[in-house]
């Protein structure tokens, strides 16, 4: 690598990649950012970058068929370099990534997941399926489910820039308390791996997909997102039914009042 290669004069790429700003990066991330920064340097062909040039760079990436996620990785690499240079005026906004719609998990499929987990003796996974499907818990809040939270039955959990209002249904709370007692969990996250580490996204999704295979359900439905969507759609359906029943009851009330006190057309 050219030790003198630079995007901004006086700020060599290799010096940046050896700085404290990137000391915590792993080898793969460092190699990826190095490649991206050298690509940008070649694109600029010795011209100092400005907002217009960087905008054209993004447009060229799109025209060359790069996906939004790949473009955003390149923007992150460039932005980190520009921050190190103190050129905050060159920072670029990431492109909005449209989330693919999650496949719909039916209530019948959810029950098959529970029965399969129970049959295989996967107690923790059984509870995790229920937790997401009955409460709509965001995955990032999973580590906040502690014995104290389960004992209380409800809590306001910090979730990004807001809070998630957790309410544990009585049946789920009883099962969680039983699990906590059997596994002698005194404090910390309730759901941990065999090594004692909190359950993370990749570990959980892998287990959910395995459960789906065992239950004869498409693997793509094995995710916390699908379970959370089931919680929301179930509630929406119940609320819609309740509203319809209320409207019908209101109409019956008005009809009864009309019959007893309505204007009959006779004086």
Describe the structure.
The strands form 2 sheets. The chain has a two-stranded antiparallel ribbon. Strands 3-4 form a two-stranded antiparallel sheet. Helix 2 crosses helix 4 and helix 6 (123-135) packs across helix 10. The chain is mainly alpha-helical and 267 residues long. Strand 3 (154-159) and strand 4 form a beta hairpin. The chain is extended. It has helices spanning 13-17, 27-44, 51-63, 68-85, 107-120, 123-135, 147-152, 170-182, 201-215, 224-261, and strands spanning 6-8, 11-12, 154-159, 162-167. The chain is built from 10 helices and 4 strands.
Summarize the structure.
Helix content is 57%, strand content 6%.
Number of helices: 10
Inertia-based shape: extended
What is the β-strand count?
A: 4
The level of helicity is: 55-70%
Strand order of the largest sheet: 1-2
Query: Stretches where pLDDT falls below 50 for ≥5 residues?
Result: none
Topology:
Blueprint: E1 6-8, E2 11-12, H1 13-17, H2 27-44, H3 51-63, H4 68-85, H5 107-120, H6 123-135, H7 147-152, E3 154-159, E4 162-167, H8 170-182, H9 201-215, H10 224-261
Antiparallel strand pairs: 1-2, 3-4
Q: Could you name the key traits of this structure?
A:
about 270 residues; mainly alpha; two-stranded antiparallel ribbon; extended
